[in-house]
Every structure is written in C-alpha cells, then in structure tokens.
Amino acid sequence: MMREQVEQQLEQEEPKIIGFNEDQYADSSDSDDGVNEFKAVFKKYKKRRPPPDFSEVIDVKSSPLLNSRHVFKPTDITPEKAALAEKLGLIHPSEWRVFSFPDRSGLYLLPGLLKKEMATVWLKRAFKYANPPNITNLTLHGKDVERYALASPKKPCGFLSLTKNATWIP
C-alpha cells in the first residue's frame, strides 16, 4: 500500500466527536509542516546572550490571566485526607489552591503543594520513576538509554517526558 493510501485509511477510521472542531492546543504549539514551537520557546528562554526577557512569563501567584480557587471546601477536608497529605509530604489540604487558564480548558496548576523539606525526596522519586521498566520519551522506541547516553555524551537531553505519547524532539 502506498503511504497516501494508508494515511487516507487512517483518516477515514478516525472517530469523529460531535461538537468537537479542533484541538485547541494544536494550533498554538504544533503545525502541519512538522515544526514544533515548543522547541523554539525552550531555546528562547535557555539562551544566555542576550539574557532572555521574562516579561511574557506568567507569575502564577499574581497574574490576572489565571483563575484561582481552593481545591477543597473546608467541610471536605477529613482527618484522613489531612493525615495522608502529611504522610506524603504535602502542605495541609486547606492551603491547596488550583490555578487555571480561562482560554486553556483542562490545564490546571497546583503550585506549592510540597513541603520544602520533601522536594528533594519527590525529585529523587521522579528520577527513579524515569528509569525502566517505566516508559519515557527516551525508551519509547526500545533504545538502551545507558548505551545511547554513552554513545553521545556531549549531547544533553533537554527534557524528559514520562508518557507513552511523547513526540517532542529535544
């Protein structure tokens, strides 16, 4: 089968969702020509000369662009929830706030949930989670991460995604 025929067949088999026109994130981050704008933005803020301009970066705690609310009502916080949060190294649930972008439904930020002394513990857990048998963007295609890293030690990995659907290019 020709490539075009396979693509047409996939398009025909793709289920259509009623009332759904387009992915609201697709037009702002990925384009049809394969250019991923994430990489350009990543490089913009990574560069050192000239230093990046952070005026467009949103300050979660003071931006008028975000909606903010408490995660739990005071009546929803049980002693069990508070004890679990304490055990996990999280701040008390009464202090949890969720921030959302009105123009990006489904994107929520929950900053400051970890107690400062637990941040390193969770960071170590995240690094451990990124190792096999868990799937990351480095192991998605069956690459031996250690051998691959040793083969090109001068090329650093810009980021690591803990998902099966990672299609970004570092």
Topology:
Elements: H1 3-13, H2 26-29, H3 37-46, E1 67-70, H4 79-88, E2 97-101, E3 104-109, H5 119-129, H6 145-151
Antiparallel strand pairs: 1-2, 2-3
Explain the overall architecture.
Residues 13-30 have low confidence and may be disordered. Strand 2 (97-101) and strand 3 form a beta hairpin. This protein has helices spanning 3-13, 26-29, 37-46, 79-88, 119-129, 145-151, and strands spanning 67-70, 97-101, 104-109. The protein is α+β, with helices and mostly antiparallel strands. The chain has a domain at 58-114. The chain has 6 helices and 3 strands; from the N terminus they run αααβαββαα. The chain has a 3-stranded antiparallel sheet with strand order 1-2-3, with no helix packed on it. The radius of gyration is 21 Å and the shape is extended.
Helicity, in percent? Answer: 25-40%
Output the number of helix runs.
6
Distance between the termini: 32 Å
Number of extended strands = 3
Sheet with most strands: 3 strands, antiparallel
Net shape:
extended
Structural class: alpha+beta
Uncertain parts: 13-30
- Rg, Cα atoms, Å: 21 Å
The average pLDDT is 73
Provide the succession of SSEs: HHHEHEEHH
Q: In terms of quaternary structure, what is this?
A: single chain
Strand order of the largest sheet: 1-2-3
Q: Strand content of the residues, in percent?
A: 5-15%
